[in-house]
Every structure is written in C-alpha cells, then in structure tokens.
Known about the structure:
Blueprint (H helix, E strand, L loop, with lengths): L5 E3 L1 H30 L8 H25 L1 E3 L15 E7 L4 E7 L10 E3 L3 H6 L7 E6 L2 E10 L1
Parallel strand pairs: 1-2, 4-5
Antiparallel strand pairs: 3-4, 3-7, 6-7
Amino acid sequence: MTEKVFPMTVEGKEKLENELKELKTVKRKEVVERIKIARGFGDLSENSEYESAKDEQAFIEGRIHTIENMLQNAQIIDNSNSKEGEVSLGRSVIFKELPDGIEEEYTIVGKAEADPFSGKISNESPIAQALIGKTVGDTVQINTPGGTMEVEITKVY
C-alpha cells in the first residue's frame, strides 16, 4: 500500500516543521510536567487534572505522528510548468461572484496546510476543484454544499 502524498508549499512545510518542533520540545515537556503534578493530587481514578493532562498528552502525540507522516510524504508544489494566468495548486486566485460582483481571494494549497480563515483552501474543496485549470476571464459554475454559484476569474498569481 502506498502512502498518501501531501502536496504543500515551501511555506506550508516550514510551518509544519515549526509546529512539530514546538510540540516535541515545548508542549511534550509541559504536559509531562502537568502529569507529574497531577499524580501528586492523590487518587488517579477521580483526578480530573490527571485525566485532562493524559488527554492532552494523547492529542499531542497523535498530532506529532500526523505531522511526521505529512512531512515524510510531502510533495512541494512546483508551478514552473503551469501556464501563466491558469489556476493551479499553489497559486492565488481572485474571482467575483456573479451577478453581484463580490470579490473573493483564495490560495489553493494541499489539504495539510488548508486554512479557510486565512484564505487558503484545499485543492480537494469544491471551489478549488471547480477553478483548477481555468484561466483569467473564465466564468465557472461552482457547486458548493450551500448551492451553486457562478464566478468570473479576474486574477491569478
């Protein structure tokens, strides 16, 4: 069975590497210390501080494993072969919704670094899938969970 590939930008990879370092060198030590302190409170079966710290430890270890897997299977996005003005992974796109003209801007990234609140959407999202391969001036129908919207691509960079 082959591992899943995680496409990401250089910046996205660096961000994950920094998060991994923080988890391993700071957060892991903090939670171990919390567990030690909580053990001193007595009966572990009714110790909410201990349970909370153990839950946090499990989350941190799971996140470390996830990030290590993503980094091990990272594929850096290379746009050198894509056409100028064409929407592709790693590029930013500005489009206006039709007919009202509201502009939106997104950068299309791999799932590992997607953050819609920062304008970074996954290449697997309905919006990105509809836009990839299109060029400036194209009108595109996007099927989203909230319904269909029509947009015109105004800029790709």
